[in-house]
TrEMBL record:
Ranges for domain Pyridine nucleotide-disulphide oxidoreductase dimerisation: 74-179
Presence of keyword NAD: yes
Organism the protein comes from: hydrothermal vent metagenome
Transmembrane segments: none
GO biological process: 2-oxoglutarate metabolic process
Family: Belongs to the class-I pyridine nucleotide-disulfide oxidoreductase family.
Compartment list: Cytoplasm
Annotated protein name in UniProt: NAD(P)(+) transhydrogenase (Si-specific)
Annotated ranges, domain FAD/NAD(P)-binding: 6-54
MF terms (GO), sorted A to Z: dihydrolipoyl dehydrogenase (NADH) activity; flavin adenine dinucleotide binding; NAD(P)+ transhydrogenase (Si-specific) activity
Swiss-Prot/TrEMBL keywords: Cytoplasm, FAD, Flavoprotein, NAD, NADP, Oxidoreductase
Amino acid sequence: ATDRLGLDAAGLKTDHRGRLEVDRKTYQTSVPHIYAAGDVIGHPSLASTAIQQGRVAACHALEVPTLEESPWYPYGIYSVPEISTCGMSEEEMQERGIPYEVGVARFRETSRGHIMGLDHGLLKMLFSLKTRRVLGVQIVGEGATELVHIGQAVMNLKGTVDYFVQNTFNYPTLAEAYKIAGLDAFNRMPIPEEYKVDLKAKPTGKSK
C-alpha cells in the first residue's frame, strides 16, 4: 500500500511489509509533522479503527484535547449469517491462564427469535472467574455486527456478568440474548458474598 508513495523523500521508512511505525497514542510518525492511520500502519486494518485513528491524529496535530482510545474494538464479517467478535477468545484466555466461565444464548431462546423464525444464531460471552468482568463476546447470526456493540460497551466500561443479570433489556429483542447468556454463566459462577441471603436472620420491624 505504500510502495508508490515516495516515503523516502519525506524521510520515512517502512518495515518489510511496507508498514509505517507510529506512536499508537497519537499516530505520529518519526517525522513529527506527518501522521499515519489505517492500513499503512498494519493491524487491525479495519475501516472503523482507521476512522478513529484519523480523528486522534487530527486532534493531536491541531493540539485539540481528546480522550484515550478504548482498548476493545469489534470485528465484523458481513456473511450470511453475520459473524462478529470483540475481546478475547477462549483460546486466548487459556493461553494467558485466565480462569473463565462461558455464557451462551441461542437466538431461538428469545421471543424475538421465535417471531423472526430464527432456527440459527448464537451469542457467547466469556467472563473472568476472578474479576467477573466480561472479556470476550462472539456472535453468529442475524444482526451480529449490530448486537456486538452492547458487549463492547460493557467491556470497555469494565463491566461484569452482574450487569447482564441486574439490567432489563427491551422485550422482545435479540439483545435479550445478552441477558440469557449472562444468566447462563452467572448460574455456574461463585456467588459473591453480597448476594448471599442469610436464611437464619430474623426479620426486623413489625409487619402491618
